[in-house]
Each structure stands twice: as structure tokens, then as C-alpha cells.
Amino acid sequence: MVFIIGLMPHGSCFLWDPWLTSLHVVSDAGVSIAYFSIPVLLYLNRQHIEVAMRPLLLLFAAFILSCGIGHSLNIWNIWHANYWLEGGWTVITAGISLHTALELRQVAPMLLSTQQQLVTTQAMLLKDPLTEIANRRGLEIAIAELPSQKGNQLLKHSLVLLDLDGFKQVNDRHGHMVGDTLLHAVAQILDNHTRSIDLAARLGGDEFALLMVGCSMVEARAIAEKLCQAIRNISLSELSKDCLDTDIEVNVKTGISVSVGISEISAKQRFNQAYKNADTALYEAKQNGKNQVVSGWT
Description:
The chain has a five-stranded mixed sheet, with helices on both faces. It is of the alpha+beta class. Residues 246-254 have low confidence and may be disordered. A hairpin with a 2-residue loop joins strand 1 and strand 2 (153-154). It has two domains: 2-125, no CATH class; 136-295, Reverse transcriptase/Diguanylate cyclase domain (Alpha-Beta Plaits, 2-Layer Sandwich). The longest helix has 43 residues, at 83-125. It has helices at 2-6, 18-44, 54-80, 83-125, 136-144, 167-174, 176-192, 217-232, 236-244, 271-287; strands at 149-150, 153-154, 157-165, 199-204, 207-212, 257-265, 293-295.
């Protein structure tokens, strides 16, 4: 076979070297297969293509297909030397290429802008718009992606649920604007007092969560106690001044407190089970008089 490849009518271009000839045949064939596969993949996934984008993708597929045919003609010409055919097809490819480039020039800014908007939208879907920390969905994804071990050591993680005590009374007495400002302040405390590998999230209403990576319940409880103290130090009067620009007298003894439930979770544990265990501990904290931390089920 190598001997036949070497016996070319115009083999002088390849110095009559069968290995050099084989190199060109294999490389052009590989490029051709790669080019031909792209239109095939576009066709197989055509149901995912927006109708408005189909003409452009069809033109792009034609451009890719023409390039593949061009490389196939390079192989053909090794034996047949039909350079008019090769040159004519090159002209066709050039025309399709220029037309594709012109179309892309018109839509490229829109495509790039759409991609940027998509990335921004995906990020927003995992973030709570009021507090600017993660939402429930973001927490679910983080739990699903927890590492199981570090080296040969199995990692332990903790899920901390926090629920503000008397939040409804804050809304009723001072208004929802003060309540929203309070939620944002609590979120900032959670975000600022934890490590970068941890995740603070708002699950809804006045319920927050903290995922503590590689942290046992004992360690998580010590951190939770500090967070509770920081939240108790929030001044409602200051929040009221900031958002309403008025002085509202708030009794320090009736300030903000928080009930906390902690559960140890394992990597790849389902969110619902992890949440249920921590929520059971949180319920116990509420039943025992609130304003406390309870370590619960594993």
C-alpha cells in the first residue's frame, strides 16, 4: 500500500517519498473528518437551535463543509492533479467564507452580548436579590458538590440554619423597609464572618443557612455563637435612621435575636435530608425559648 501511494504521476511534488505522501493524506483526511462532523452535529442538535439563528448556522455549516471538501480535494490531487477543480472549489469556499464573515460581523456584537447576559442571568438565578447572597437553589448545588475527602482524610461538613426571632414584629412595628434592611444586615454578617469556602444563603423570609465546608458540628457551633452575638448587636434604631431618615426609639432588650440549628452532613448527601436534620435542631431551639444554638442530628 505504501508502495502504491508513492507511485504518483506528479509525485515529484512530494519528492517521491511515500512517508511524506502518507503524512499529507492522513492529515488532510483527519481535517476533513473534523470539518464534516461539525455540520452533522449541528443537524443532530437542530431542535435546540432558535429559529432566528438557523440561517446563520446553516451558512456556517456550509462554510465548514466547503473547507472539508477542499481538504478532500487535496488528497485527490495527489494522484490526479486536477488543479482547476481544486482552484474552482477554493473560489467557492472563499465566497462562502466572505459571506459568513460579513454575516458574523453584523450579529457578533449581539451574540457576545447575549452570552454575557446569559452568564449574568445564570448567576442571578443562584442569588437572592434582596440580600445578595446565595438562594436556596445555590445552597442545593453547593451541597451536591461538597468534597468527600482531603487526601486520605474524610471531610465533615456542617449545615447551620438560622431563623430570626420576632421578625414579624419588626415588620409590623417599623415597616417592611426596616425589615428588608435588617435581612440585608444579617446576610452581610453571615457573609463577612465566614470563610471564602463557606456559603451563606437566604432560604426565604427570615430564614438563613450557612454551609461550613470541612467543619465539624463542634467547630460550627462555636462560629454560630459568635454570629448570634453579632446579630444581637444589630441596632434597629440605626437601621431605621438609615432607611427612613427618622429617629425611632427601640428598646435594647427587645432587639434582634436568632435561633440556630446545626446538623453534620456528608458529601453527596441530598439537600432535603441535610435540611431536615438541621431544621429539627432549629425547631428544638425555638421550642426551648429561642435565642440559642442547638446541635442536632447527623
